[in-house]
Amino acid sequence: MSKSIILLGAGGHAKVVADICLAAGHQIAGFLDDEKPAGLEWVGGKVVGRVDRLADANFAKEYAFVPALGDNALRRSIVQKVIAAGAQLQTVVHPSAVISTFASIGNGTVVMAGVIVNAATRIGDFCILNTGCTIDHDCVLEDGSQISPGAHLAGHVHCGKDVFIGTGAAIIPRITVADRAIVGAGSTVTGDVPADVTVVGNPAE
Fold it and tell me: Is 158 one of the catalytic residues?
């Protein structure tokens, strides 16, 4: 029997993640959040404490945990606490998403409604594939990267760790977007993007 889910974070992004969990048939046991009070009603459940509850070995063992934070750096930080606690990261996929049999999705990644992931693509751990984005064949998203709603990656695109691709952006084939780079909303990427750089526009620069 699968474990009940604890969502890490109780903000707007967590509302969508909770909805996906329920649509995928998971049972939500609650949310951990450092800013909202325990007992607060949230979408699909209640806040049951702060993130430091992961230090309780029994609590960490009892549940599976889904990162539900949109900020890449904060999500990575909390995932490190889950790993340190020896707890299970749960992947959640909306039933309307289309994932190739020949693609792989990492632990703790959230795949939202209308997403398409095509053959031979590898998605890392604790990534976010947001509503209606498409990722074509032979792409790689390393751990912690986020593809925003309606963004499109053509074939053989490689995104490094903690990359952020903005809403409606498009990336042509065989492009590398290096670690922690940001592609602005609506941009068209026609050349490689170095690490820790933000690019915007058409073409993005």
Answer: no
